[in-house]
TrEMBL record:
It holds the Pfam family TagF_N. This is Type VI secretion system-associated protein TagF. It comes from the Bacteria. The gene is tagF. InterPro entries: TagF (IPR017748), TagF_sf (IPR038225).
């Protein structure tokens, strides 16, 4: 695939008010299975941790956007958005948009117009009057992430040590940040949100998916309390 193009379309997974069960399409099995298992475990543990406060934190929780390295959840690097939702009888579960990428996740964290458009789009499923069939069609054709693409030239690392890294020029800030995150976190995840009642606007970097015991912080913003 040429470096200036991306595959169009986002997949989706989770619960929406118009349906009585999970809906899913357009996502690789490896990602969908791993994502579902992690979310179910994270929700179960956060319910235990937050007890009677859980429902309020969940229902007022922010939309989180993410950009993952390859092999964090499935074999591909991924970007997407995660929103608290419910099904038609009020059972809580997140709804997600996601798509694989062939560029460094940092591109999509630094160039966030796509996530603003994704947030506007995912919020539409909470509207009682949404035409879900039309929404699904638009999701499969969306190219919001096209604007975030920058050519991914290889970074030539001349020397790498505990206290220094030497790279050949030219080297972009995006390349250097991607390299630094790989060195620090390995398979890294970047999360960001515009905030909510309990969580301030912020950006979070984790090594792999957050531990399920840490997930409550994405709901209540109490990072230290939940082991971050």
């Amino acid at each position: 695939m040429p470096s200036h193009t991306v595959k169009p379309g986002f997949g989706y997974f989770g619960k929406v008010p118009q349906r009585g069960d999970f809906i899913q399409a357009g996502l690789a099995t490896g990602f969908a299975n791993g994502w579902s298992e992690w979310l179910q475990a994270a929700m179960a543990v956060s319910r235990e941790q937050l007890e009677e406060s859980w429902l309020e934190y969940y229902m007022t929780g922010p939309i989180w956007h993410f950009a993952f390295s390859a092999n964090v959840c499935g074999e591909h690097a991924m970007i997407g958005s995660l929103m608290p939702s419910v099904d038609s009888v009020g059972r809580q579960f997140y709804f997600s948009l996601a798509t694989p990428i062939e560029h460094s996740p940092i591109n999509f964290m630094l160039n966030r117009k796509w996530s603003m458009k994704a947030e506007e789009h995912i919020l539409q499923v909470l509207d009682d009057e949404v035409d879900l069939s039309a929404w699904v069609e638009a999701t499969g054709q969306a190219c919001w992430h096209q604007d975030a693409i920058q050519p991914d030239a290889s970074l030539q690392v001349l020397m790498n040590g505990d206290r220094h890294t030497i790279v050949a020029e030219p080297a972009s800030a995006t390349q250097l940040l991607h390299h630094a995150y790989q060195q620090r976190f390995g398979r890294y995840c970047v999360w960001w949100t515009n905030g909510s009642e309990h969580v301030p606007e912020c950006c979070v970097i984790s090594s792999g998916l957050p531990l399920v015991s840490q997930f409550s912080a994405l709901l209540d913003g109490c990072w230290e309390e939940w082991g971050w």
